[in-house]
Amino acid sequence: MEDRARTLARAAELRAYFEQAGALPVETPVLQPAELLLDLYGEDIRGRAYVTSDALRGEQMLRPDFTVPVVQMHMSHGAEPARYTYAGEVFRRQEHDPDRANEYIQVGYEVFDRNDPAAADAEVFTLIAGALSGLPLRAATGDIGILTAAVAGLNTTAARKAALMRHIWRPRRFRALLDRYAGRTPVPPTRDALLAEADPLAAAGPVIGRRGRSEIAARVAVLKADAAAGPISKHELTALEALLAVRETLPFAQEQLRDVAVDLPQITPALDRLEARSAALAARGVDVDSLEFEASYGRTSMEYYDGFVFGFYAEGRADLPPVASGGRYDALTRALGDGAEIPAVGGVLRPGLMLALQEGGE
């Protein structure tokens, strides 16, 4: 109980810190409608959240984070620009890592401001860095928007690009799809045989399961169209792999990405945004020359991030989750805004981890 009380006290201090920076304190319900999260992220969210049901409200989830309900609240009746802060419990299943807490206190800061997105990115990053001052942490940054721009501009079918986009947050599946679309992996014999049939359903038995014959036929048609498409070109694939391999301090990363843009010109606007952010961070006193940047960073985070992403990690403690993390989620405001949207960026801290690291260093 004492540890919880001290964590709550630190959380209150952090929320007050963000209030002093101009944030409005808000609360969100612990129970969130499961349907909304499933619509946003698909059934994968079930593997990370606690799901329950209610006779009146239907399927509910214990709050996996604050960002979605805060965005809903802002898009319903928020002023512009707006800054919010919050503190409370979140719940995440940890079946693959039982040593990690599945219930913990989170404090956050969110900015909704269309005037200068680069400045807002720098504001969130530096405020959170300031809250963590004195702890033995390293910062890591990335930009999901560069990879999504690269995929969106590939010279391949819309269906293939949509599949790659869907799996950006599942790196192994993304890699497998990329290899398949580039012709690096052979078509499985069973699929080859299926596609060779003039009418794959002609000799099929009775339909078992939820899918009807029309759905199966539609899926076969998709597979045939994909098989008829040419492979992703070698120069595009090489450039995409070079992009994914970028892991440098920010200035060198920018140089490498500009080189990649020669073969993937569709990433140029995203690189312009990266440079504007770098300048905004430097203007706020961040040592960008030593700031880590990784093009693949953030691909195992929550799937609503679509631009700048960052995290702060305990030095020498790879077993610990990030002490703080965040990023930009413009597309989420569009998804929840019924056609309206506003650039938005935010981050969260874990005061319990902050206390543990502080005491470990004393």
UniProtKB/TrEMBL annotation:
Report the source organism.
Answer: Pseudodonghicola xiamenensis
A GO molecular-function annotation: glycosyltransferase activity
Protein name per its UniProtKB record: Histidine--tRNA ligase
Q: Name one GO biological process term.
A: histidyl-tRNA aminoacylation
Q: Which keywords annotate this record?
A: Glycosyltransferase, Transferase
Subunit relationships: Homodimer.
Name the residues that bind L-histidine.
D65, F66, T67, R92, Q106, E110, R299, Y304, Y305
Q: Does the keyword Lyase apply?
A: no
Q: Where is the Aminoacyl-transfer RNA synthetases class-II family profile domain?
A: 14-351
Q: GO CC terms on record?
A: cytoplasm
